[in-house]
Write a structure and sequence with these properties.
Layout (H helix, E strand, L loop, with lengths): L1 H20 L2 H12 L3 H10 L6 H9 L7 H13 L6 H17 L5 H18 L7 E12 L5 E12 L4 E9 L10 E6 L2 E8 L4 E12 L4 E9 L8 E6 L5 E8 L7 E7 L7 E5 L8 E6 L5 E8 L2
Parallel strand pairs: 1-9
Antiparallel strand pairs: 1-2, 2-7, 3-6, 4-7, 5-6, 8-13, 9-12, 10-11, 10-13
Helix pairs in contact: 1-2, 2-6
Length: about 325
């Protein structure tokens, strides 16, 4: 009996250490060992909670051969925290940190943690406006022009929207801009350029998110179309390496153009897609920099939920 108690104490100590420092697969393996559950039993508990994950996947996760990425898999991770009697968000936090390290090795892109944090901050800002997330509008077309300045900074983003109202009485749109890491939303400026004027502006410093209400001079009826244009003057962060646009619902055509200052031209550029914050990036395609205008672009005929963007390397 003392030997069993000593073994349990060691397992608990290993679990505590793994939960503090990770990585995710080590913490998961330690948690399963500390509870003394075979993987088949863990799978059974997940199934009772309506989460379907195979024993093979669980084995891969605790070995570090694969990481949970799909929405169903992330549901499973949250359920595992409950099944294995772990603190809430303990495994999810380690998984986010793991994804961040992988992203850092792969490319200087947005990490899972930063995307999730920005999404949460945006939800809070939109709730403050008291209007639905889509605002009663469907996007038919969105042309976004991003300007990278002489200091390699994200200097400005200009957007031209074509929308259609799907309910009566729509008279505004909430524009969202997210600056690069280290940006200062309180120093950004919103410019209403065409067919709109600036209303309330909300900012979230920690994530660099700015949300601005653009007021129309008319109330749209269901089925009406409308065009408007605005820009966000940024330039508050350091070196920019990518621009990402998040889409929460299907939409129309999206075009992204990134223009570089003649004194700050990158060596290569590529487009990419990402199905969710936790998913790996895919759809990589090189974008050649041609001509004297030093710009690249992408065109997506129909936007799907997820992330779409352009990244570039300076040297």
């Amino acid at each position: 009996m003392p030997h069993a108690t000593q073994h349990a104490d060691v397992a608990t100590a290993e679990l505590d250490s793994a939960l503090r420092g990770g990585p995710f697969h080590v913490a998961l393996r330690a948690a399963i060992a500390a509870r003394g559950l075979p993987l088949q039993r863990v799978q059974h508990h997940l199934s009772r909670r309506g989460v379907k994950v195979g024993v093979t996947s669980l084995s891969y996760w605790q070995q570090g051969a694969r990481r949970p990425q799909r929405p169903e898999s992330l549901r499973a991770v949250r359920a595992l925290e409950e099944i294995l009697q772990l603190p809430e968000e303990s495994l999810i936090r380690l998984l986010a940190e793991s994804d961040e390290h992988v992203a850092d090795r792969r490319a200087p892109g947005r990490s899972h943690r930063s995307l999730v944090a920005a999404s949460g901050a945006l939800d809070r800002l939109l709730a403050d406006f008291g209007i639905p997330r889509d605002g009663g509008l469907h996007t038919l077309g969105h042309h976004e022009r991003v300007r990278i300045g002489a200091r390699r900074e994200l200097a400005e983003c200009e957007s031209h929207h074509i929308v259609r109202a799907h309910r009566d009485g729509v008279d505004r749109y909430v524009a969202v801009h997210r600056g690069d890491p280290g940006s200062a939303p309180e120093r950004m400026t919103v410019h209403a350029l065409e067919n709109c004027r600036t209303g309330r502006v909300r900012r979230h410093h920690d994530t660099g998110v700015l949300a601005a209400e653009l007021l129309f001079d008319t109330r749209l009826r269901a089925g009406d179309t409308f065009l408007f244009r605005y820009a966000v003057e940024d330039g508050t962060a350091g070196v920019s390496r990518e621009y990402v646009r998040a889409a929460g619902s299907p939409g129309g055509q999206y075009a992204l153009q990134v223009c570089f200052d003649s004194g700050a031209v990158p060596v290569r550029c590529h487009r990419f897609t990402q199905h969710s914050a936790a998913a790996p990036r895919g759809g990589r395609q090189e974008l050649p920099l041609r001509g004297r205008h030093h710009s690249v672009h992408l065109v997506e005929p129909r936007v799907r939920p997820g992330y779409l963007g352009i990244a570039w390397d300076w040297e």
